[in-house]
């Protein structure tokens, strides 16, 4: 495993996903500046998801067939420029245009980034990809802090501050561009392994794995969304306390992403995935029976364990579709998260019909359903490249 290029790629991932994390935090500022309704403000996120996630498999398909060396250095600039200029948008339509530009930059980066990162993993595939994925998780967590701080002190015209990480990463990639080229022996090995066609069993297992990853994404997004609703709207509690709980859950998930890779390589990818889903289902179902510091500890553990398999499922998808590394990455990362986000609409309907506690109880059962799906994924017991 080549650690230095993986660390550079991880910082690149962080810079890219800072923009994704920053956008939701900017919505209140956009709403006030442009006089938007809540519906129009929410539509901004919809266009962001459409441009940044759903089209990732398309860019992955292209990346698998053509060498696009310019993607890694330029995509952070594209993503960052859209958000940086958003504070100067004169109207709603131009704001949407800038959000779409930023989303395209995000969509360009992820399939290529995961493909290149995979080439440096060596035998420890889940470990290497988890290092890369950790950067993205931290970027999403840091984005709101950077955006709110900039706009609090500088107003909406402070959004150009958000592009600073992208500029630094652009320079870092340019200076280390030779280091980020996949080694020839890795490419040769990949071509040799890809002689045989992908079997129907592999394709079905990939579909099951992508569905499982979508359910996990819905669980993560659902908890992050409905913890504040539960404490603020249902219990009439302190908003700051609710925000700390949601942040604890997300930050712990980022740490779990980094820790999960080495454990998955040691235990076996599928075994680790199934174990994390089963354990997180148990922990999440204890949510209603804790209070105070115990709730923080419970959410930290459940978030860490649930999201620890993020890098592992991406690697599993790449191994199941070895001819389509970038496209598999685009599906496992972009499409599943977008589909999981759309599932929030269903949870909203449950909350409207039966109340927020029932929505959370539904969320806590989702990992168990994903676990059952995972049992049917046909995956090699001995992962290629592992001893």
Could you explain the architecture of this structure?
The protein has 387 residues and is mainly alpha-helical. It has two domains: 3-193, Up-down Bundle (Growth Hormone, Chain: A), CATH 1.20.1250; 200-374, Up-down Bundle (Growth Hormone, Chain: A). It is 80% helix and 0% strand. It has 16 helices and no strands. It has helices at residues 3-34, 38-54, 56-65, 71-86, 92-119, 125-154, 164-175, 184-193, 200-234, 239-267, 269-284, 293-307, 310-320, 325-342, 344-354, 356-374. α11 packs antiparallel against α12. The protein is globular and about 55 Å long. The two termini are 14 Å apart. The model is unreliable at 184-195 (pLDDT under 50).
Instruction: Please identify the structural class as seen in this structure.
Output: mainly alpha
CATH names the topology of the largest domain as Growth Hormone, Chain: A
What sequence of helices (H) and strands (E) makes up the elements?
HHHHHHHHHHHHHHHH
Rounded to the nearest angstrom, the radius of gyration is 20 Å
Q: Can you name the CATH architecture of the largest domain?
A: Up-down Bundle
The helicity comes to over 70%
Strands, count: 0
Instruction: Report on the biggest sheet.
Output: none
Quaternary organization: single chain
CATH superfamily of the largest domain: MFS general substrate transporter like domains
